[in-house]
Amino acid sequence: MEKSLFRYIWTHSKRDQLIVCAVVLASQPFYFASLDLPRQIVNQAIQGEAFREGQALAPFLKLDLHMPNWLGGHTFHVFDGFEVGRIGLLLGLSCLFLFFVVINGAFKYWINVAKGVLGERMLRRMRFDLFSMVLRFTPEALRTVKSSETATIIKDEVEPVGGFIGDAFITPIFLGTQALTAIFFIIIQNLWLGLMAIGVVGVQFTVIPYLRRELLRLGKQRQLASRELAGRIGEVLDGIEAVHVHNAYGWEKAEIGHRLFRLFDLRVKIYNRKFVVKFLNNFLSQLTPFFFYVVGGYFAIRGTLDIGQLVAVIGAYRELPPPLKELIDWDQQRLDVQVKYDQVTEHFAEERLLPFVSAREEEEQDKPLVGPLKVEELRISDAHGGLILDNASFEIELPAKVAIISNGGGAASTLARILARRMNGFSGQVRIGERDLLQLPLAVAGDRLAYAGIDPILFPGSIRDNLIYGLRHKPLGSPGSPDSREEMRRIVEAERTGNPVDSIADQWIDYEKAGAKDAEDLDHILVTLLNRLGMGGEIYLFGLTGWIVPEDEPELAERIVEARHRLRETFQAEGMAGLIDPFDPESYNEQTTIAENLLFGVPKTDEFKGRNLAYNPDFRDAIDRAGLTDDLVHMGLQIAETMTEIFQGLPPGHSLFEQFSFIGAEELAEFEMILRRHARSDVALSKEDRAKLLSLPLAYIEPRHRLGLLDNHLRLLLVHARRLVREMLQMADADGVEFYDPEKICAAAPLRDNLLFGRISYRVANAQARVAEAVSAVVRNMELLEDIERIGLDHQVGTAGRLLTPQERACVNLARCVVKRPDILILDGALSPFDEARSQKMVEVLFGLCEGRSLLVVLPNDRQADPFDVLIRFRDGQIVLEEPRGPAQRARRPAPESSQPIAGEVA
Question: Which CATH class is domain 5-351?
Answer without folding.
Answer: mainly alpha
